[in-house]
Amino acid sequence: MSEKPGGVIAIYPGSFDPFTNGHLDLIERSTHLFDKLVVAVLHNEGKKSLFSVAERKQMIERSLRDRDHIEVDSFDGLLVDYASAKGAIAILRGIRAISDYEYELQMALMNRRLQPEIETVFLMASEAYSFISSRMVKEVASLGGRINGLVPPAVEQKLREKFQGV
Ligand code: ADP
């Protein structure tokens, strides 16, 4: 087997609206597997989001300070085309529960059909974070509930600004 010159690069794509401690945990556990990870925010015109792509990228960058093997980027169009352009050989995704599985499987199989050389790698969510989703965090924050411990401090701050204006 030949070594990849730039090391093994993986893409972690997602909406990250917003980035949570579940996402962060997955990234931390993946660092042992890849030489470089590109966290890629999906720019999807069709999906209504709370935060702009620029805001989402900035929150991720602030939450991932001092990790020089991680790049934060955004993309639109086909994920496999973006992954190829980045020289990636893997797509990283997380699975929290059976309910994630069906959608993730469909997407992984479609991506394999489109680009067989790129493999999707799944990591199971940590027990401590498996109940966290961006959707739930937004819902709780919008109702004034406590979100500390669910998201990194930079995200907590932005959610407070968004919903409470402070
Ligand atoms: P998408 O809209 O692409 O699903 P998300 O930002 O919701 O974007 O999630 C990106 C990836 O991170 C998905 O594979 C999702 O299953 C995974 N993920 C989300 N929350 C968690 C969590 N708490 N623990 C582990 N993985 C997670």
Chart the SSEs and their pairings.
Blueprint: E1 9-14, H1 21-30, E2 36-42, H2 53-63, E3 70-75, H3 79-85, E4 90-95, H4 98-114, E5 119-124, H5 134-142, H6 153-164
The structure holds adenosine-5'-diphosphate.
Adenosine-5'-diphosphate binds at residues 14-16, 20, 22-23, 26, 93-94, 96, 100, 125, 129-130, 132-134.
Provide a compact summary of the structure.
It contains six helices and five strands; from the N terminus they run E-H-E-H-E-H-E-H-E-H-H. By secondary structure, it is of the alpha/beta class.
Principal-axis shape: globular
Strand content: 15-25%
Main sheet specs: 5 strands, parallel
**What are the bound molecules?**
adenosine-5'-diphosphate
Instruction: Give the terminus-to-terminus CA distance.
Output: 55 Å
Order of helices and strands: EHEHEHEHEHH
Could you give the order of strands across the largest sheet? Answer: 3-2-1-4-5
Rounded average pLDDT: 94
Q: Helix share of residues?
A: 25-40%
By DSSP (H or I, 4+ residues per run), the number of helices equals: 6
Rg computed from alpha carbons, rounded to a whole number of angstroms: 16 Å
Low-confidence stretches: none
The strand count comes to 5
Which class do the helix and strand fractions yield?
Answer: alpha/beta
